[in-house]
Design brief:
Length: about 170
């Protein structure tokens, strides 16, 4: 939950940064609808494939890859579409993974309370990220913000992978 909350703390930056990229590329603001549609296509695909992917790839890594593509290729509109789709793809994979873990690892008597806590823990950082990113875009380049998003999400994903490995090693011994 902590890694997802940390990732969501910067994930809201993405929506705001897309406006800055569109301005930088001197494109019409209507392009945002196409980017968000690409994100939606990725989200649908992520939802459909999430069970298979959870066993193979950390959701945080998927989100980080989307952000990384934005950092490196923010000048290339087709690659921004791909980045939006990957970002959208990673979101449901993260949530399905977390929900699956709650349902399979916790006693049914506390699952409702954990889900309620999860909602608070994830929605507050995501909402704050919109506020913070709106203020940051005034003084910080979108490229720096994208780089920070890559660092934060990659760090959270790596931390999660290390914790999973520790738990597996502990359970095996």
């Amino acid at each position: 939950m902590i890694c997802l909350s940390i990732t969501l703390l910067v994930a809201g930056f993405y929506e705001i940064i897309l406006f800055n990229i569109i301005d930088y590329l001197h494109q019409p603001l209507s392009l945002i609808g196409k980017f968000i549609s690409a994100q939606g296509v990725g989200a649908v695909m992520g939802g459909l494939l999430s069970i298979r992917l959870i066993k193979q790839v950390s959701p945080g890594i998927l989100v980080s890859v989307g952000f990384f593509i934005q950092v490196v290729f923010a000048q290339n509109i087709p690659l921004i579409y791909i980045s939006c789709a990957i970002f959208g793809f990673g979101a449901p994979v993260s949530m399905v993974g977390l929900d699956t873990m709650i349902q399979t690892k916790l006693p049914s008597a506390i699952q409702g309370r954990v889900n309620t806590s999860l909602e608070a823990i994830t929605s507050i950082p995501f909402s704050l990220s919109f506020l913070v990113s709106t203020l940051m875009t005034i003084v910080v380049s979108y490229k720096i913000m994208l780089f920070c998003m890559v660092v934060v999400t990659t760090s959270a994903a790596c931390f999660l992978l290390l914790m999973i490995r520790k738990v597996r090693n502990y359970n095996d011994s």
